[in-house]
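Dear support,

I submitted the protein below through the web form. The confirmation email said the job was done, but the results page showed an empty box. After a refresh the structure appeared. I'm attaching both so you can tell me whether what I see now is the final result or a partial one.
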Amino acid sequence: MGAEMGAGVGAEEGSGPPGKDADRRIGRRALLVGGLAAAVGTGVLARDELAKLWWRMPGVEKARVQGAVDFRGARWLAASTGNFRWADRPDDYGVDMVVIHVTQGSLASAVQVFQDPAHRAAAHYIVGKDGGITQMIRELDVAYHAGNRGYNERSVGIEHEGFVDRPQDFTAAMYAASARLAAGICRRYGIPVDREHIIGHVEVPGTDHTDPGEHWDWDRYMRLVREAHAAS
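What the results page shows now:
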């Protein structure tokens, strides 16, 4: 979240007030439906493409298993649908980055704002000081966490409970759990385990956030991520 409460995340750039992103989604779906109809009419669109795209049509959502998580051992608490966009990653958007955030508050306060549809921002995961991992958005979907539309579409966001000016909040349990989580994400999508692909929110172009801040130990964290990745 950086400087303000909102759990280290930034709303999707250009998302504006509630409903505006939904309007854009409807517009894209309308174009898709028109394109599908034209393509099917001429026999251009293959069946496998229809199978991949059917869920984008108005009134249709891709099936989800209630309570399913992408990281074993994570607890599921659903974010408001106002804070992310339904998707089918990596089929529609390639995933090649992990973005590290700090909540600027407690885990409970982060959960609360991520479940508030007026907040317009949320990350996929929150890692607590005790090492517990909470997933609030499926990796399939585009979370509004980076404050940059393109980065939202291509990344998974990981929040960390605490404050950027309190190094004691970044516990050994938190570093270890987050490293295992990041390593698993990198394995799933073939993301290189380096600082070009695992970045802080502050490094996202156009952001006004400062997290994870100067007290986040990047050398320690990246070593743990590499170890977890190699051990898999």
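Response: this is the final, complete result; the empty box was a page-load delay. The mean pLDDT is 84.
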